[in-house]
Amino acid sequence: EAGVTQFPSHSVIEKGQTVTLRCDPISGHDNLYWYRRVMGKEIKFLLHFVKESKQDESGMPNNRFLAERTGGTYSTLKVQPAELEDSGVYFCASSQEWGSLYFGPGTRLTVT
Amino acid sequence: AQSVSQHNHHVILSEAASLELGCNYSYGGTVNLFWYVQYPGQHLQLLLKYFSGDPLVKGIKGFEAEFIKSKFSFNLRKPSVQWSDTAEYFCAVMNYGGSQGNLIFGKGTKLSVKP
Asked: How far apart are the C-alpha atoms of A98 and A60, rounded to whole Å?
């Protein structure tokens, strides 16, 4: 069974540019989550999809971040325009069973 | 706001030493508790979890954790570490009844095991 995959693994962009991160969950998992770890800090929840609907987006930092999950399959997280403080590792996770999250490898975003 | 505290940022042990990583959380209600591990170059993976029942939980690779409600703690233990246990360990909490997946993580503890 393929795990959660994320693309790209690393992205370096300049402040003001746009970046789109992609997450492919484990097939059949209705729940998809985005988390972020800024260097030296905790891994923090961003949002949670159930199929294509946003269940909880309380962790999204501001309106520069837009997450979508087309057709309840893969998800994208767009940052526009990127700021320096957006640098960090963005993790995606999926689950079917309550409380058992499977994480992807993360996308390391560097904003210069 | 709820938070999770991991007491040690970096722990260095020799092989065969015993391990205990501290985790305390700040939430007075019913919680679900997790330990995740990230081996170098790999994904975060679940080591063990506590939902209810026996407060001593056994996980993969010989790890266990004990939930002590009166101390708001969920410490991770292993009697004898191996070099392959070198990794970063994260304690996490989820409110019972909260949004499924809204995990609150600690800052992580890096464990280095010397061969």
From this structure: 22
Closest-CA residue to B62 (of B86, B45, B78): B78
| Separation of alpha carbons B87 and B64, rounded Å | 16
Helix (H, G, I), strand (E, B) or coil at B101: coil
Whether residue B102 is predicted with pLDDT greater than 90 in this model: the reply is no
Residue in A45, A95, A97, A102 to test binding to B, most B beta-carbons within 10 Å: A45
pLDDT of residue B29: 78
State which residues of chain A have pLDDT below 50. none
Q: Which of B90, B94, B101 sits opposite A43 (nearest CB)?
A: B90
**Closest approach of A85 to chain B, Cα-based (Å):** 18
- Assign A75 to helix, strand or coil: strand
Q: What is the pLDDT of residues B70-92, one digit of tens each?
A: 999 999 999 999 999 999 999 99
CA distance A3 to chain B (A): 10
Taking the Cβ of residue B104 and every Cβ of chain A, the question of whether any pair is shorter than 8 Å is answered with: yes
Count other Cβ atoms within 10 Å, centred on residue A13: 17
Residues A42, B62: Cα–Cα separation, whole Å: 26
Tell me the pLDDT tens digit for each residue of A10-24.
Answer: 999 999 999 999 999
